[in-house]
Write a structure and sequence with these properties.
It contains 7 helices and 3 strands, in the order ααβββααααα. Helices cover 60% and strands 7% of the residues. It has a single domain, classed as 2-Layer Sandwich (Zincin-like), CATH 3.30.2010. The protein is globular. Strands 1-3-2 form a 3-stranded mixed β-sheet, covered by helices on one side. Helix 3 crosses helix 5. Bound molecules: zinc ion (ZN) (2 copies). One zinc ion binds at residues 84, 86, 147, 150, 152-153.
Length: 157
Amino acid sequence: MPVWPQFFTVRRRRRVRTRKRAPAASYVAHKESARALISERTRHHAELHTFTFGRIAIRDTRRSWGSCSSKGNLNFNYKLLFLPPCLREYIIIHELCHLRVLNHSVDFWREVESLMPDAKARAVALRQFERTSGTSVSALTKLTEAHAECSQCLLIE
Ligand SMILES: [Zn+2]
Ligand SMILES: [Zn+2]
């Protein structure tokens, strides 16, 4: 009697369908402008510091700003678009340095700081902000407004 196998496939299919959430409207609206900006800045730093990377993917990740795969592909959160330039640049440098050191060892931070001496201060500032204000687009936009006169932001062309 095929009653059980049938029942099982129906349940499995339904579970898979509900697990996948629809893309957020904000992600759909801003994905391509995020891709343009992030690609431009990543290529800029890759040329300047001779990094070679695979492809760039823009995602709506819940808990990360970026990641680097062992194959040399880079993933970035589309919300980088809403970050102050100095923090966006820090994340891009951080992920590029993972192309050379794939963990967060002393060697990794030495690499990051050779390209961006105040990288750790930027990382701390970003974490601090996330803890107190979260990562909503409106919170990030307010933070960016507060960086209007930030000297590190103004250095970025
Ligand atoms: Zn990292
Ligand atoms: Zn800034």
